[in-house]
Structure formats: C-alpha cells, structure tokens
Task: structure prediction
Amino acid sequence: MNKSLQPDLLALVRDPIDQAALIRHVRAAEDGAVVTFDGCVRNHSHGRRTLYLDYEAYESMALGKIREIAAQIHEKFPIHLVAIAHRLGRLEIRETSVFIAVSSAHRPAAFEACRFAIDTLKRTVPIWKKEYFEDGAVWADGEMPPAPLETRAAKPAS
Amino acid sequence: MALTAQAMARHTSAGYNSLVSLSSQTARVKVLFFGRLKEIVGQSEDSVELPDGAPIEALFSHYGANHPELARFRASLVASRNQEFAAWSTPLHSGDEVAFLPPVSGG
Result:
C-alpha cells in the first residue's frame, strides 16, 4: 500500500495536462524509477485524416474508476506513487489526452504498474471520444467494460 | 417484473416521465445518457418514476420503446447504478442514479 503521506494525484481536467507537474508529484528521494505514459491525439484513424477529438465523461464515475485503478496498482505492484490525469473537451492533434506517471524504488514495478493502469483505464473508465474528420464525425469504437453477472430475481435460500 | 401498458403511459403533464400509476409504490430515479446515446435520446439527463424494485432492464425498455435506434445498441451497452457497473437485473429504488454506457473509448 501507499506508505507516503503524499497521496496519489488523480484528476479529470479541461486544460492542457501539466506533465512535468505530475512527474514532480510522484518523484521522491526513495524512488529509483519514474515510468510515464503519454497518450496523445493521433492525426489518423482507420485510414482517415483526423482533425480533432472531443472527449466526454461520466465524470463522477470516471474519477471513481480511476481511483480504483490507483488502489489496484498499489495492491499488485510495489510502487510508491501514481498520478493519472485525463483531459476532457476538444483536443487538437499532438495534444495529450491522458498522462500517467508511476514511481517506484526499482523499475520493473513502475513499468508493469503503468502498463496495467493505461490498459485498465481504456477498458473500465467511462470516457468517450468523438473523432472529427473532414467529412463528418463518429464516436470511436470502444471497449465494453466487464459487466457484473446477471443474477436471478429470486435467490434460493441458503 | 413486467410493466403494464398502462404503467408505461407517460405523464407528461406532470413535467416528467412516469412508468407507473401514481397510486402504487414508486421509486424516482435519475437517468444519464452519454456519447451516442445522448444524441439518440436528445437529452443528457432524465428523471423517471417506476415501480419500486423494478430492474434496470425495465427502465431501458421504456427508452427503447420510444427510441428504436437506442434499442438496437442494447447488446453493446453496460449499465451502471450509483456510479458502479450493474447487472441489468439490478432492482432500482428511489434516489438511484442509472446510466447506460456505450463501449468506453478514453485514453
């Protein structure tokens, strides 16, 4: 678990993400590694030229799911701190949509935790992007979050 | 729990959607729409009255009946109740917040 008094930094933002601030936040004297992931807006999608993207979120739930990811990586990997920021609204080509920084005493934990964090975010956090092209716009193909199993209306008494 | 045709009547004069007659025990829930669902339904938020304990599935059917295009997306949607992913059979009670979530595409 997180032994530091300084908490993780987890946020949804509308302004450009300050990557240096997130790195500074997680980087401490006991850390030997900081691994970062910079998710950026690409200028093409399925062979079409992308003009810009527009992100929207179910904000209260998205923040809750990002907090769950932070808790999960503290449990699974011997890391120190994590910072995750996802930007919402209109983003231009080359801008950062999501940034993750993970610090740890030794590099394997930071690499693995960072990878786990972005992979889980893309699968479980309720954020959607609309892609704008020269000839129209589409909601990006997404991933279906893992849904809870359906239960029967009447459960047998135990 | 099946909703009767009468129960599905919309009481628009009351200023909100109602799936039930006002005499039975009811629950008022908040419903949120995102992404393409918001575009199909034409609103991001709604407030609905339904029988207390009715499943999320019944609430979705209410919107699906009014928006056939929405019903077509059913297989690719996940439901949430109070900011947690929830089974379609989850019973609803007053004050619950429900959302129908298209496949997520953050990152």
User: Anything to note?
Assistant: DSSP finds three helices and nine strands in chain A. The first strand of chain A starts at residue 9 and ends at 13. Residues 1 and 75 of chain A are 6 Å apart (CA to CA).
